[in-house]
Amino acid sequence: MPVARVHLVPAAAPDDVSGLEALIAAGRLDPSGILAIFGKTEGNGCVNDFTRGFATRALTDALAAHVGREKAAAVCYVMSGGTEGAMSPHWTVFERLEDAPGEENHGPRPALAIGRVHTADLPPEHLGRMGQVELVAAGVKAAMKQAGIRAARDVHFVQIKCPLLTAQRIGEAEARGADVAVRDTLKSMGLSRGASSLGVALALGEVARDRLGDDVVCRDWSLASGRASASAGVELLNHEIVVLGRSADWSGPLTIDHAVMADAIDTEALRKALDRLGLHAAGQLDRAQQARLVAVLAKAEASPDGSVRGARHTMLDDSDISSTRHARAFVAGALAGLVGRTMIYVSGGAEHQGPPGGGPVALIVER
Amino acid sequence: MPVARVHLVPAAAPDDVSGLEALIAAGRLDPSGILAIFGKTEGNGCVNDFTRGFATRALTDALAAHVGREKAAAVCYVMSGGTEGAMSPHWTVFERLEDAPGEENHGPRPALAIGRVHTADLPPEHLGRMGQVELVAAGVKAAMKQAGIRAARDVHFVQIKCPLLTAQRIGEAEARGADVAVRDTLKSMGLSRGASSLGVALALGEVARDRLGDDVVCRDWSLASGRASASAGVELLNHEIVVLGRSADWSGPLTIDHAVMADAIDTEALRKALDRLGLHAAGQLDRAQQARLVAVLAKAEASPDGSVRGARHTMLDDSDISSTRHARAFVAGALAGLVGRTMIYVSGGAEHQGPPGGGPVALIVER
Amino acid sequence: MPVARVHLVPAAAPDDVSGLEALIAAGRLDPSGILAIFGKTEGNGCVNDFTRGFATRALTDALAAHVGREKAAAVCYVMSGGTEGAMSPHWTVFERLEDAPGEENHGPRPALAIGRVHTADLPPEHLGRMGQVELVAAGVKAAMKQAGIRAARDVHFVQIKCPLLTAQRIGEAEARGADVAVRDTLKSMGLSRGASSLGVALALGEVARDRLGDDVVCRDWSLASGRASASAGVELLNHEIVVLGRSADWSGPLTIDHAVMADAIDTEALRKALDRLGLHAAGQLDRAQQARLVAVLAKAEASPDGSVRGARHTMLDDSDISSTRHARAFVAGALAGLVGRTMIYVSGGAEHQGPPGGGPVALIVER
Amino acid sequence: MPVARVHLVPAAAPDDVSGLEALIAAGRLDPSGILAIFGKTEGNGCVNDFTRGFATRALTDALAAHVGREKAAAVCYVMSGGTEGAMSPHWTVFERLEDAPGEENHGPRPALAIGRVHTADLPPEHLGRMGQVELVAAGVKAAMKQAGIRAARDVHFVQIKCPLLTAQRIGEAEARGADVAVRDTLKSMGLSRGASSLGVALALGEVARDRLGDDVVCRDWSLASGRASASAGVELLNHEIVVLGRSADWSGPLTIDHAVMADAIDTEALRKALDRLGLHAAGQLDRAQQARLVAVLAKAEASPDGSVRGARHTMLDDSDISSTRHARAFVAGALAGLVGRTMIYVSGGAEHQGPPGGGPVALIVER
Asked: Is 0.95 exceeded by the ipTM?
């Protein structure tokens, strides 16, 4: 029976694999069991953020030395750029341990379960449209099956790395006579995240198929998934999908739950989820509680109506700093103030991921 | 006996005075009693942030129409640029009401007291040096006296608007043969804030005079004030000093206290101060509590050692976004997550204002 | 018979009117004859550039003291934000002198002629659509008539200041049930400039009406004006239109011509126009020639196909700096290298202004 | 007798080595002869520009597949970040061909000669001080010797890649009790470039040793090299030095000369150098001339006095965009306007490289 292990590893630079190597050398991480690595890297998280590709290359090279090129390439590297504010660059390594080495790894069931798939390449002209929604929905179902998660309600986080358009890719599509959904490359990141998230919502039954269509993507904000997290990156042309949930097929000390923040300061939703997981906090988590909190995975975005609880924000009118950077910094502050640490994963752009201006947050804890 | 009134007014743009005008028109604000206006304006908060000067001009013009040019010019306009994240642009108007119109304004004493002064112009070559420290210390004492605050311990916030160096001002000083402390204009903002804050620390007895000198400014971070808040702006050549505290000479429903955050996520310090003021919060303040919280005035900075609680941050290595902008966004998120609103005043650059990486926070509440 | 005078005035800050005041005090500029002031101000030239509004306020106040509020408000203030690279902030003041004071002002005819109009406010939902095209076209014709310019071929520059969408304006329109052309505020600037420029093209007969429609704006780049220059700004809701050309109804020493740069480095087009105006330059203009060159008015944009003469550029993929800022800096360098000075007016965003990636340049010289 | 070959290769991304591979596959580039690769990569060119490290890794990996890890590591990879404006990302590959394959490679002598060395690692506390100056001067002399360039006057370009300080490196040095020259990481790049350039000036006899000292670095701007080009990068701890000049020991069709621009728009200096090399241009180089111009290597900086030919610039007061980015965009425009192409190498930060605000430009042409 498999056991899920999750390792938080600080990164001193986008290509810093020393922490990963140290875990492997110490026998605490088996490289052959790694299914996925989520990274927070220190680029701008937008179109020209090459820290993601740099990190993926460094991580792949490092793993290849242990498990070979082919197996290293099959790992899902989900690099989310942008460590604004005091957010700390790090890797979250998801490991599937087939034969748990000791009793301490066998906790009550159901336990944290992990599934992952890679989709086929997405043609640029499908980006932000139903072609992308369907491709992702099929991928999510495949990942659930792989993880042994039977019911949609047992899925608590779906991380998707999706492609974006660049001037070059648009040119290639247009040279073929194809019409892309948008020519603004930064905006293409939003459309890609939005269509991917609707794909999750479709797979999990959060939105019915007949409400979907090309014209709702990044337009009808009433349609959303409470468990999707999508990041767009220049370094891939397909999707990498990682499903996190609970399954009776898995054992081990870890479990997972999620909250949906209604807006950028809805820390109460997170506090209630911590409560459900046994971390009762008046104010900030104390040190013992912080030690049990393995990972915080969140999405953030500037509320599209230009305000939070009636007060105007300026994130969408700032031409010097992308609103995704503003939102990550701010929401990371709100979450860190509650959980007491800055090594958290806050990813920008939450189109169709939770309500407008809010977003899903998943919590992985040791029971 | 004077009563202090504090008004929070949303600003739709740096020159939006419509909210101020509405308060005056409604008889809820007497323009002749305004001592100071603190503004959070939506510029970058750095050297070339002209939203501060634009706001000051608009506010001055508006008040001049009510009280005349001379009286309008005597108001302390402390414009702090930068509403990163979801922070909401607004004015905080400090009013001294000589004859409180009704019983509802007479609360227990001591109550919130306000003092303000303008210093003489600072020669560019004194910026960041003892000349500036002494000038500010004298100003703080004058403002305390004006406010009727006798003991240093009754001072809870000292807001200082201080000048910065521009290429032009440096050139003028050097043409006179004078040597400025720094030629990097962005860095001059930090030095000016640092020297001003040490001036507050000197005035309030937080740091002894014999520990001060030109060489400690922005170098010896063990020297700090727990109540200073300094903002640098291109639009002035002198200092504007506003002292907020408690005095038995004042009455009214408002009181004030402060906390010193030890680091960027030390929301517990704030929670304890809220407790002392009667706002006991498990998690976020509820709506009734939020209504009693009149103003949150805070300082934020990137911790100079490059980490928060041992985890690396990237704010000081980011050449695209000033660390002051990162820190404001993040700390605003941490504070807003606790108090439940985004119309808060978080000012960047906390050199010698609280411990390195932390900063003072003042809270004005209705009893 | 009127004489056109054009004054270049350095600006030390967005609200610096000292140079203007000095000219007036010296009797070299009659404030009552000012038709328009073009400003290059030092903001980011994008959505949240408040230097434009600040400058307009300062200039209006200054003129009002000389000619009264009403006449000051009728001046066209065209503030173009963004002095990237070594471009120097300045005002270009266009004056119509009714009674030329001396013989030195009477040169050969036709001479430089100036016309200006303000249009009505543009409803947000017309922005970027035919409603805006038609409104501008009518305005251009009115301005030509005012200037005494009879033939479209005698028009050499049409400067238009047009509005943009903000989160707030979009919200207002949508609250009325109206549908805006775009919800991305930065992108709305491009649409507004594009529709305005097509309005110029329509008025000057460069594009036939039957080729125009909502769907060509910022889509069909084969449609363009070789003489339009549009800047979008947050500070206005209507259009300010200034037409510059040659008319036999005007006299004086000044004349005007224009070039259309085919791409960002097409300095040869400019060199030919200088030749036509009698400024024959092998390489950079010499000092005597520089003294005769009164004003350089240019548009710049990143070529939408992502390349210049076959070599890739990265302006459209840079999420840290708007492509408009990149293009202004670069084209200003190309022009300044030829004319030998940095006080030139290069305005960003050249949608439908010259060919894609290129743009119009007007030259005003003393004969 | 060796022949120098120089290849300009477009880069579609920081890790794009396809152009390099194509040249090798076509037999036009012998990977074992590569001495150095200069890259213009599309990062911000400042502290957190990881495109340089990413490019170096990709190029090293690519060459290692051809010539082995050790030989690939010995190549000087000088990655200069920042392709602002229309500057085009590319690699300039410097090859030393021992046995020129045909007559067409044997031109008149002296011809272009190339030397390269790596220095030892620089302790962080030596950065920006005499320790760095001396280390670089010794390196330049070693590189001249290697290239067979006997006289300092035959050196026309010295490219140095030098390290910078990061928060972490400062912390390490301070933990050892060492005192660094500056704690501002962005500023450390300037100091490193400045000290390296004074090292070149010392080696080439442009500045006498007794005029040098810790206190002149980035202070006494009268001291400079007319041939140094230094770029700072986070990815190295030592210096990589490449000397380009003329030597009778080399043959082949290529030669080199240089100009020193007096300010950011001094294109006339460049035009005179083109003249000396046989490229006589009235205005922009024509197509035939462009084909003979192999490489343009230039330095650019914002003039420290805040003006160009008396007109104020705003580059040093802009807190949104580093002055190095402004200067690169602008000067690239000026140079591209003259030479007619955008694939040029303009590197930012010209401390002690040419006069303040100006900088060296080297030209490699085919005779």
From this structure: no
